[in-house]
Amino acid sequence: MFARIKAPLLVAPICAAVLVAGCGGSSSAGNSSTSAARTGPVTIKTVTGRDGTYITDRSGRVLYMWLGDDPGKSNCTSGCAVAWPPLVTDTAPQAAGGAQSASLGTTTRSDGRKQVTYKGHPLYYFEVDTGPGTTKGQGSGSFGNRWWLVAPSGAAITVNGNSNVAPPTGY
Which of 6, 43, 52, 76 is least enclosed, having the fewest CB within 10 Å? Predict the structure, then answer.
């Protein structure tokens, strides 16, 4: 009987350690559908949804701008960059559809990675968005400022900005 009780007590800490290790450290971590790290070229395109026409990545995942950033500089780090993974690349970003090539660029993050910018705005995913067309971050006020979809002109799209979706717990 003692051996039966002891085994679960040993397994629980091991399982917890595996879970913590799987959730650790890198801001490019996350589930595979929202991972910000990209190999090869990053393509920015446009789609039209209930909030208007806005920019996305090549798979249709929504990209946001954060009003807490300075022009051409990301201020979203630590927990912010976990909830709002930056779109990073190791190559020059490309435009497709209604996205403007001249509007694309990169900025160097504090960790040395290159983050894609559009009209000088660093671009981010929202960890809670579940796939293409999901815009749960639209209008969110998490991390002290608003998060908005980005129009092809580079302007913030502020319609439907009544999102009360917070980042997942633990950030």
Answer: 6
| Tokens representing residue 78 in the block | 């630590």
pLDDT tens-place string over residues 107-132: 999 999 999 999 999 999 999 999 99
- How far from chain centre, in Å, is Cα 47? 17
Structure tokens at 135: 């815009």
Return all residues near 85 (Cβ < 8 A) that are at least 6 apart: 27, 28, 30, 34, 35, 36, 124, 125, 127
**Nearby residues of 137 by Cβ (< 8 Å), 6 or more positions away:** 62, 64, 84, 126, 128, 129, 147, 163, 165
Is residue 109 situated within a structural domain?
yes
User: Strand pairing of 121-122 and 43-49?
Assistant: unpaired
The predicted-structure confidence for 45-58, as pLDDT tens digits, reads as follows 999 999 999 999 99
Three-state secondary structure of 117-138: EECCEECECCCCCCCCCCCCCC
Task: Specify if 112 maps to a domain.
Answer: yes
**pLDDT tens readout for residues 130-146:** 999 999 999 999 999 99
What CA–CA distance (Å, rounded) separates 23 from 45?
Answer: 30
Residue 35, domain extent: 27-157
Query: What's the structural domain count of the chain?
Result: 1
